[in-house]
Amino acid sequence: MIKNFTKNLLLILFVGTLSFQSQAQGMKERTADQQFDMLAYERAAELYTDLAKKSDATDHQIRRAAESYRRIGDSENAEKWYRKLSTHSGVQADDFYYFAQMLKLNEKYEEANKVMATYKSKAPNNSIAASHGENADYVSKLKSMPNKYNIAIFDVNSPTSDFAPNYYTKDGQTSVVFASARTQNTGAFSPQFQWDGSNFLDVYSADIGGDGENVKVKKFDKGIKSKYHEGPISFSNNGDVMYLSRSNYIDKKKGLDTARHNNIKLFIAKRDSNGKWGELMNFPYNSDMYSVGQASVTEDGKTMYFTSDMPGSLGETDIWMSKLEGSNWSKPMNLKDVNTEGREMFPYIGKDGTLYFSTDGYAGLGGLDVYRATAKSASSFDKPENMMYPLNTNHDDFGLIINQAQTEGYFSSNRDGEGSMLSNDDIYRFEMLIPFKPKFYTIRGCAKTQGEEVIPATTVKLVNTETGETFKKTLSQSGCYEFENVPSGKYRIEGMKPEWTKISDYDLNTDDAKGVNIEDADVYLKAPECSLLGSVVNGNNNEPLAGVKVIIKDKRTGRVMSYLTDAKGQFTDPLNNIPCPGGYLDYEISLEKDGFFPKTVDFTHAIMKPGVVDLSAYLGGPIPMFDAGAFCQINPILYDFDKSYIRPDAAVELDKLVQCMKDNPDIVVEIGSHTDCRASIAYNEALSDRRAKAARAYVISKGISASRINGRGYGESRLLKDCPCEPTNESDCSEDLHQLNRRTEFRIISGGANVKNNSTNSF
Predict the structure, then answer these.
(1) How buried is 22 (Cβ within 10 angstroms: 0-12 exposed, 13-18 middle, 19+ buried)?
(2) Mind listing the pLDDT tens digit for each residue in 256-276?
(3) Which domains does the chain possess?
(4) pTM
């Protein structure tokens, strides 16, 4: 684990000391609690261990023993006590999480995954548990490229912790600065950090030679020294601005939170023309209540990324972003694309905008692993990538910096091995031998038939399946295509050609590509075949009619197909198993819709070529049920002036009505009679009533039941032609127009569920 000060966010410090005196056995737990609250975890671990190993040890004593060892980086003892705690009835969900993390630190991955699964059952919404569950083979994947890096110890380390390297450029020369707890304090006051009794941090620099190993270490600058922690530290691209993480101690005053802990704050200083650092300026979002530090700024100095546990953090510590707007830093924004419920720390923003950071919030090899995330914008990043073994190990690996070419750099780790210093935090140099996958790709392919023939004049588009956006669309005259400068991601290639049917698209994920070129990204289409298209309209106004049930009966085979017209009044039949060309259609087609009279037509057609057979012109449309005149094909009957008798031409139309009612015994018809405007209103109402009764009597005389025919006179209230009469009942209208107003019309008022149209057509 990160030793001492780098264990959690940026070191939480306690002001003051408490001497330990021998206590009676009954006071041991209270003393242990006091030491734990003061962050004196080494002494607390000793006391809790004495209590936890007893047969009557409480959950609190065992948990605190495990927690104390976890905080000082003793994963073996921490695992021992978390294991014991996991068997107690008072075990909590977080106990399983920390138990799993200790097992990973001890490279017991199989058991760690089982314990993490138990944690997931108790915390189903935790993203860390989910990440482990979704990546069961993460260890083998992360160790699949053991030759990805050359790693060597950097010759600056001391027996204490040395970590968080950063580049510093002055007068054209670049050195590496870092935080260290080595003993170089002078004077009467030489304090130690209570967490584990080590020294407080100072900032040091190392002038590096051409091979990165010929170094000379010295204190960075005495002008920024205080009694407590100094570092980590970073700089602007030209080295003129300093971003220093230090204890909340300035002007000889200590800032404390409510638990009397001294948190870390971020300070900014500028270098003057003489090379001297000016006054340390307080970052405006510092607080006594939380820590802020580990800053890294973009090359232009206008965007800062830093670590904090400020309100709004998703986990123990998160990475935040702030922009320099004029001379003021903007309100920090949480980088939710990379943060988890765990610890995200030590951000470093590369020259190309790639964010490097360390976290234990994903399925890594143990402790903190280093990740990289490609920038979409200043505040948005792609899914983080683990930088893999051997840069990452089962120990804490963190604080990575990398050169502009992204080929080499430095990082911190508390790993064991040759050159390491007593398992403390050390700084290592790395060279990347196998680079990470590129950001942009070229994709090539063709539109083809199932027989692998290229289809010319095909439209092809490349769609980002994660965003739904079309990256590019092109008409390929040759049938083959090439998409260049395609960003990494998930895509689908779709082919389109009029009257051709899509067989398959091409789906791809650039993560699966073996190089920058993705070949044979082919799409497949099917040549056009025959189909049947019909359009149904309202028989009264020729408007498209949706929701019409279309029943097609093949007279030759007896096969029946049923469709429903869409919003355009259309339906299609694929003409399956019909030779195309060479087929012959012999259909009976029925149209049905509530509120309309059903209609049946016969349709025959010889298929001479592939394509769409459009029978719309033959269908016409069903007629609304209320229009008996249209349904029975009856013209309005007319009357002589001031007469009500049935004229011979009217008898012809009434005979049509009689036959229609006999053919459709369920319908009931209303006869509505009208007059012109001449004569008084009362007189015309009486005249129209006589006309309706005369027409009704005629229909009844032909054998239609009186209950199926109603008569009603409307007088002059529904004139067809605008022929208003003067108060003298005179009018300027012609006699022909008056004749059109003297009429009888027909309307179906009930029945019609089983009606059949008088006009069945064949084509």
Answers:
(1) exposed
(2) 344 445 588 999 999 888 888
(3) 4-142 (1.25.40.10), 440-522 (2.60.40.10), 531-619 (2.60.40.1120), 628-750 (3.30.1330.60)
(4) 0.58
